[in-house]
Amino acid sequence: MELSYRENSTVKQFIIDNQSPFEQELLDEAINVKDKINEILFIGNIDLLKNAHKLVMFVVEKKEEELVAFAKQEGVAWAKYSLTLAFKLEWIHAIRRTLWKFLNNYQLLNKEKEDSNAFFTLEKNINDYIDQFLTHFFISYSTYKDELIEKQRELVENLSVPIIPINKEIRILPLIGSIDTSRVRTIQEKVLEEIGKHHIRTLIIDLSGITPMEEVAVYDFKKIIEANSMMGCQTIITGLRSDIVKNFVNIGINLRELAEFKGTLELALNDILFENNSKI
């Protein structure tokens, strides 16, 4: 490997003057990543070679603040586009090894050689900065992924508890699919939040689309209705099928004192809206 060297040049200048050999050495070190460079550029608009030089300059110049900010930025970018972490880890280790080699060549070409202690101190600083980059990169990556998962969880919960407004005081909660204890807790949390926030007076819970509930879920479902009543909200239940009714009866739960029952959602809406109109 032929390298150019100018008298009294700094490590930074030496690496800048030998950018092409540095890139070639880096690609030789990163066996698995070099074939993915264009793909990563296309998917995430991330230029690995350009960013490698940026990282090297931050390390050589000991720009800790800029290095940390860059690591966080990279972490978000790789998390956002779900790029393979193994490639990133291999790439950073390849940068580390390449930087070591060029530091060694700089030492050999430098006629006014620094003492060995200064050289090893510089090498240690390089390791510390690269490790710091990796630490902040992975923290940023994990944080972004965790926040994304939480947002997706909240979205799923909101979709599983679709509280639909009819007017200022009336809401419909059409439930579909299986109702287990975990979903019942989510429903209760969302329902009480909506009642308190919007001062809902009537909540129609339509059960025509659900599958039979577990025993524990039935008990927890009763607690939702009890909590609604304590919040001053009347609960109307519609769409009860015979198998669901048998489930309630077999367990010994009676909801007649806590809720009103209508055969269908349409019937419940007609009765409520007719009653409201007659009061006007």
Task: Give the distance, in angstroms, between the N- and C-terminal Cα atoms.
Answer: 91 Å
Number of strands: 5
Shape: rod-shaped
Largest sheet entry: 5 strands, mixed
Spans of at least 5 consecutive residues whose pLDDT stays below 50 are none
The largest beta-sheet arranges its strands as 1-2-3-4-5
Describe the model:
This protein is an alpha/beta fold and 280 residues long. It is 66% helix and 10% strand. The protein has 11 helices and 5 strands, in the order H-H-H-H-H-H-H-E-E-H-E-H-E-H-E-H. It has helices at 11-17, 19-29, 37-44, 48-60, 64-80, 85-109, 116-160, 181-198, 215-230, 242-251, 265-279, and strands at 164-165, 170-177, 202-210, 234-238, 259-262. The chain has a 5-stranded mixed beta sheet. Helix 2 (19-29) crosses helix 6. The longest helix has 45 residues, at 116-160. The N and C termini lie far apart (91 Å). The mean pLDDT is 86.
Question: Quick gist of this model?
Answer:
Helix content is 66%, strand content 10%. The protein is α/β, with parallel strands linked by helices and 280 residues long.
Blueprint of the fold:
Layout: H1 11-17, H2 19-29, H3 37-44, H4 48-60, H5 64-80, H6 85-109, H7 116-160, E1 164-165, E2 170-177, H8 181-198, E3 202-210, H9 215-230, E4 234-238, H10 242-251, E5 259-262, H11 265-279
Parallel strand pairs: 2-3, 3-4, 4-5
Antiparallel strand pairs: 1-2
Helix pairs in contact: 2-6, 5-7, 6-7, 8-9
Output the keywords:
single chain, 280 residues, rod-shaped, 5 strands, 66% helix, five-stranded mixed sheet, alpha/beta, 11 helices
